[in-house]
Amino acid sequence: MNILVTGAAGFLGRRLIEALLQRGTLTDRQGLSQNITRIVAFDVVPLAGIDDPRVQVVCGDIAEAKVLESLVDARTDSIFHLAAVVSSQAEQDFELGMRINFSATHNLLERIRSLDTCPKWVMTSSVAVFGGKLPAQVEDDQVWAPQSSYGTQKAMNDLLLADYSRRGFVDGRSLRMPTIVVRPGKPNLAASSFASGIIREPLNGQHSVCPVPLDTRLWLMSPAQAISNLIHGHELAAEQLTQGRVINMPGLSVTVQQMIDALRQTAGDQVASRIAVLPDPAIVRIVGSWPGSFAARYAKDLGFTADHDFADVIGQFMAQYPAHAT
Ligand SMILES: NC(=O)c1ccc[n+]([C@@H]2O[C@H](COP(=O)([O-])OP(=O)(O)OC[C@H]3O[C@@H](n4cnc5c(N)ncnc54)[C@H](O)[C@@H]3O)[C@@H](O)[C@H]2O)c1
Fold first, then answer.
1. Residue 211 Cβ < 6 Å to ligand 1
2. pLDDT tens, 298-323?
3. Which fold has domain 2-177+222-248?
């Protein structure tokens, strides 16, 4: 199997490539298990630190149509399309968001259409496609009403992918991911960045500011669960996707207060006391528009899974990054 991963050097891209290399096989469009022979790891920054002859690191801007011509050819069996700019960045810079989050996806789909090979395609959509007046638990038939440019760009991609799949240009699956926590490293420009920050920084002996009220409810998933669901999404046969190509993922529904309680339970009072709540209206407006709970019935029927509880998610992070566990 020849695989293209865009956004390869990112949080999910790197983990996905590691998981694919370890797994060694994927299921092709005919339903046959095939060895992974090549992964094109594409990003605007080079993916470093993965030494495997199956990985070919390619650097470039996904929004440049010429780049796409060399990235995807008739041999490309599957694409994991993860490259994007994050929510606050797309809100602050409209043109950048449209260029990377929407036009590049459209161009990539057009490149595939021109090849007439119908590869498998998995991409990551977001809960940010929803907004406005929402029920306590969002059902699979909830009308999309994004309240940010990022959410609008993801919703447009979802529509495009559904239509390109209906017409047989691509065998697409768009997974509506919860916010993925705990992300290691530094804060980023995602409006949801604090969801990792309020766990990661206190564990690292640093203070953290929570920019939303404690009763804000979030829809979360651990990195390990996200990667497992991305691969599961790829492995499903097209015939199983009876309710469409866009799938709300299952997740954990927790309030910020419950996240802090879980941190206290896992790491102690001193660690949990390093969080200060100081609402930021810009973040409250974006994050407050996202649903905090989904029924995700279609996804569960298809075998997608969620984490057990949030303390377990923190435990996974502490086990993987022991330097943080103080
Ligand atoms: N992490 C989450 O909580 C979450 C939740 C829902 C959806 N998603 C989506 O999942 C995908 C991956 O998320 P992530 O957390 O790994 O993000 P990330 O920011 O860590 O990774 C995105 C990658 O895209 C690359 N990129 C940006 N512009 C590019 C360009 N012009 N050309 C090529 N590459 C470019 C970046 O360099 C980065 O490595 C994104 O599409 C994101 O919107 C993430």
1. no
2. 999 999 999 999 999 999 999 998 87
3. Rossmann fold (3.40.50)
Q: Which mutation among 108, 129, 177, 219 tests ligand 1's pocket best, with the greatest number of atoms within 8 A of CB?
A: 177
Establish whether residue 251 lines the binding site of ligand 1, counting it when its CB lies within 6 angstroms of any ligand atom.
no
User: The tokens 């995700």 sit on which residue?
Assistant: 296
Q: How far apart are alpha carbons 198 and 295 in whole angstroms?
A: 26
Secondary structure (DSSP) of 179-231: EE-PPPSS--S-TTHHHHHHHHHHHTT--EEE-S-TT-EEEEE-HHHHHHHHH
Phi and psi at residue 62, in whole multiples of 5°? Answer: -65, -20
Q: From CA 292, how far away is CA 184, in angstroms rounded?
A: 23
Q: Relative to the CA of 127, which ligand 1 atom is closest?
A: 6
Taking the domains of the chain in order of start, what are their residue ranges?
2-177+222-248, 193-217+252-293+307-324
What pLDDT score was predicted for residue 322?
81
Whole-model pTM above 0.70?
A: yes
